[in-house]
Design a protein that fits this description.
With about 350 residues, the chain is an alpha+beta fold. It contains twelve helices and eleven strands. About 50% of the residues lie in helices and about 15% in strands. This is CHK kinase-like domain-containing protein.
């Protein structure tokens, strides 16, 4: 039996690629639509690993399909980030150990799917965006986000070239294009108008439409008055790995994952997404300044920031509506779809 080396990306990769594999569980189901994530048993080694694979065909879950080119950009960005993290172990950024990676290629209509094979972090507790974390739990994540942002200041020109600077004005423009927004609006109106009232629903939809107008997204992406940092791009509960401690049963932050939307951008994009998706409204409003100061202090421990806390606070306010909208539009829609699937299954059981 061959033990996995604790050194990620070691020669073990050739053993993994040639090993017989058994898919044990689809652990990515319901958590995203940009890749597949499976728990896989490799017959030639002693433990099960997580295998994340890029998709081989366009995703048609939305009115406007997600293209193979977009899948390629995202998967290969994540591969680049893991390579960078391996080159800078002193950054002390919590993330899964990676043992094998392959970029996705898409040329002349031919697709060669990429993959990332990584450790399975035990005893992970799924965190829903519907739940609230404590301020102390979010503090642990803020420290890791600050270290990740600081890493961008230390990269070589060649390393920086592997990470996009356009995310909000590309991916989010595609995601919230006119066709998709029409679908989102229809689903939100049908599912929540009765619950929140027609007038509030109309006001909310009007605000969402304005936030996601392409020119506003382009301005948000490009109007950065200081040096860009290495952003994660999708800091919210599905990408935060917490595990229960055996003695206390308290949740302990274990790792950041899913770096496919990483980009060089405004630090506020990560901080607003994190605070909006994990804290209660009252905790967020009460602790924003304290958490921004904590972030800045940790960032300053690893680099010389090109901005002040006051500048960051201003950028935070600018990004806050966008971060809230990114959560408020897709999350209820996913809930609606899950309810419909449950209803459909119940109807089937009564018929058959």
């Amino acid at each position: 039996m061959i033990l996995i080396s604790e050194n990620p990306l070691s020669p073990i990769s050739s053993i993994l690629r040639n090993s017989e594999k058994i898919v044990l569980e689809d652990i990515g189901a319901g958590k995203g639509n940009l890749s597949t994530v499976n728990l896989v048993r490799f017959n030639s080694i002693e433990r099960d690993l997580v295998v994340k694979m890029s998709l081989k065909e366009q995703s048609k879950i939305l009115a406007s399909p997600i293209t193979l080119e977009r899948f390629k950009i995202m998967h290969n960005t994540e591969v680049s980030v893991y390579k960078i993290l391996e080159n800078y172990p002193e950054s002390n950024i919590l993330r899964p150990k990676v043992y094998d990676m392959k970029e996705m290629t898409y040329l002349n209509g031919k697709v060669d799917a990429g993959h990332i094979t990584m450790e399975m972090i035990e005893c992970c507790q799924p965190i829903s965006v519907m739940e609230n974390l404590t301020v102390n739990q979010v503090t642990e994540v803020v420290i890791q986000v600050a270290r990740f942002h600081a890493l961008g200041y230390n990269l070589s020109k060649e390393e920086k070239s592997t990470i996009p600077i356009h995310l909000i004005d590309t991916w989010f423009v595609e995601l919230f294009c006119e066709k998709n927004m029409s679908l989102f609006i229809k689903l939100l109106s049908n599912g929540f108008a009765e619950l929140v009232g027609e007038n509030l629903m109309k006001k909310s939809i009007a605000a969402f439409v304005q936030i996601f107008e392409s020119e506003n997204l382009e301005k948000l992406n490009n109007d950065c008055e200081f040096e860009r940092v290495l952003c994660h791009g999708d800091v919210w509960p599905p990408n935060l790995l917490f595990a229960k401690e055996q003695e206390s049963s308290c949740l302990k932050f274990k790792a950041l994952c899913d770096f496919q939307t990483s980009n060089f951008g405004n630090p506020a994009q990560d901080l607003t997404r994190l605070f909006c998706s994990t804290l209660s409204g009252s905790d967020r409003r009460t602790n924003t300044r304290k958490l921004l100061e904590l972030y800045y202090q940790e960032l300053s421990n690893h680099c010389s920031p090109s901005f002040s806390v006051e500048m960051l606070e201003k950028e935070y306010a600018k990004f806050l509506p966008f971060a809230a909208a990114v959560i408020c539009v897709p999350t209820p829609i996913r809930a609606i779809m899950q309810i419909r699937e449950t209803v459909d299954e119940n109807e089937k059981s009564t018929v058959y």
